[in-house]
Specification:
14 strands, two-stranded antiparallel sheet, extended, mainly alpha, 48% helix, single chain
Length: 507
């Protein structure tokens, strides 16, 4: 009897499975014919005609074609167009390439070493390898480090040549990054040619390095020309003295003239401009005693650094709009102000060169046309919730320091054994394969460099999750034009973390 029941049960399951497969097959056939029809409606029709499984696709097709009436899918709203991204400036790229520890391929490391051999032909290869290893095998930081070593040691560090050595072949001690560095230049330059760079990341760094050297060369040439002009002006008696800092032997190019004709050195003008902008004043007044005139924009543009003059222009524009009394709207991301006369225009398009972001005039969030503010807010909150939840989950996960296999501990001691035979500490996450239990204490006393063998796992996990949530909340508030909505979502998740802990304490 048991065997018969088992066979009957298996037959029923097989029949049910075949019926479901036939239903899905017929549904796909109907979707191909009526792609705009809701699949739920097609599935209901297939179920209604299940007494005629062989002909139901044809019957349903004829009925729908004859009537032409069936529920249609809602058309997906197109995503709002992305604002054009401005290419990164030299300063931004330089900051990026200076960071060591960037991920790179094996070919990158080999090519970077060979490239440094080619650039620094008189620097010993052992020193180059050490410098590259010191900078986490990143080409640009290693290049700058070797260059700094050469310059601080007194070597003839011409930025456009590869002969970094003193004429007598001697060497000096060098203090770089608070460490003593020394090497003796090679007597003859290293021979060999350098082939084309294959790795894309290294090619970008080498191109940036060339740009860096070009800027250094231009700066050095400009300093030489300034010194030559100063020498000629000194011989002709055409030098000036700044009435503010009393610096002498200045040439006309190093001075700025106010509207009354007083000449002030550019260093003093730069300091005066900074002080005026810090006080929210757009007009840079002459710093000569008793003078109330201001410096024209043309003079400020000539003597100020490009970044400082750009900041001055932006602040001057904001000041003019502020004192005009007009209804000025501001970009929620950079405080750029402008007047929008069309009340139907829903998007604020920032005209600031390094911003150029589009935001909603009503909710101050990134532009979300054709979605309403409410729809965009719900979608944004869902994304924030998913992102923060993922970060909170990742905070609980550890990774083996050797094979990077993730794991999670709910109970037990803090000595973790990986399947790759690596032993790590759950608290400090260090590789303690050699130390073993010597890395731990009994928990009764605190020993520097050691961790307790047992700890409160629930408290550790809760603290890790709350720390990740707090960090995510801070990032959301900094990155978003109005981070209150995203922060409230994080607060809700934090409350869910606190609730179980409070419940445990209560019981």
């Amino acid at each position: 009897v048991d065997v018969a029941e088992r066979w009957a049960q298996q037959a029923a399951e097989r029949a049910k499975r075949e019926q479901e497969e036939r239903l899905q097959r017929d549904l796909r056939s109907l979707v191909d014919v009526f792609p705009e029809c809701k699949e739920e409606h097609l599935q209901q029709l297939l179920t209604r005609y299940e007494h005629e499984p062989a002909n139901r696709v044809m019957l349903i097709t004829e009925k729908l074609l004859e009537s032409g009436e069936y529920p249609r899918k809602e058309k997906k709203k197109p995503l709002p167009p992305k604002a054009p991204q401005k290419p990164p400036s030299f300063e931004e790229r330089d900051q990026h390439f200076r960071k060591p520890g960037r991920e790179a391929s094996y070919s990158y490391h080999e090519e970077a070493l060979q490239r440094l051999y080619h650039v620094y032909r008189r620097v010993p290869s052992s020193f180059i390898r050490s410098a590259l290893n010191r900078k986490s095998n990143c080409y640009y930081p290693a290049f700058l480090y070797i260059l700094e070593c050469l310059k601080s040691a007194g070597h003839n560090a011409h930025l456009l040549e590869c002969d970094y050595f003193q004429p007598d072949g001697s060497f000096k001690w060098s203090l770089v990054d608070k460490q003593k560095v020394t090497f003796k230049p090679l007597k003859s330059a290293r021979s060999g040619t350098f082939s084309a760079i294959v790795d894309k990341q290294l090619r970008e760094e080498v191109e940036h390095t060339s740009r860096f050297l070009e800027l250094q060369r231009n700066k050095r040439d400009e300093e030489k020309q300034t010194e030559q002009r100063r020498k000629a002006a000194r011989e002709e008696g055409n030098t000036f003295e700044c009435p503010c800092c009393f610096e002498e032997d200045l040439i006309f190019e190093e001075m700025a003239s106010c509207s009354d004709g007083h000449l002030i050195c550019k260093d003093c003008v730069q300091q005066t401009t900074k002080a005026a902008l810090d006080n929210g004043v757009a007009n840079v007044q002459c710093s000569d005693e008793g003078c109330t005139a201001c410096f024209p924009i043309s003079e400020l543009k000539r003597v100020l650094d490009p970044s400082q003059f750009e900041y001055y222009e932006r602040m001057a524009q904001q000041y003019d709009l502020r004192v005009s009394g007009l209804n000025v709207e501001r970009c929620p991301l950079c405080d750029f102000g402008m007047i929008i006369e069309d009340p139907a225009q829903k998007v604020f398009r920032c005209q600031r060169e390094d911003c150029q972001q589009e935001t909603c005039r009503q909710c101050q969030q990134p532009a979300h046309i054709p979605y309403s503010c409410e729809e965009a807010s719900k979608e944004s909150e869902a994304k924030v919730r998913d992102m923060v939840s993922e970060q909170m989950t990742e905070a609980l996960v550890r990774k083996c320091p050797n094979c990077k296999l993730p794991f999670f501990k709910e109970d037990g001691c803090n000595k973790m054994n990986c399947q790759c035979k690596t032993v790590s500490c759950y608290l400090c996450r260090k590789d303690i394969t050699k130390e073993g239990y010597d890395h731990f204490t009994d928990g009764k006393s605190v020993v520097p460099g050691k961790c307790p063998l047992y700890s409160d796992n629930q408290k550790i996990n809760t603290d890790a999750v709350l720390g990740a949530a707090t960090l995510a909340k801070r990032k959301i508030e900094e990155m978003s034009a109005n981070g209150e909505a995203g922060a409230s979502v994080v607060d809700q998740l934090i409350q869910h973390v606190h609730a179980p802990a409070a419940k445990r304490v209560k019981h």
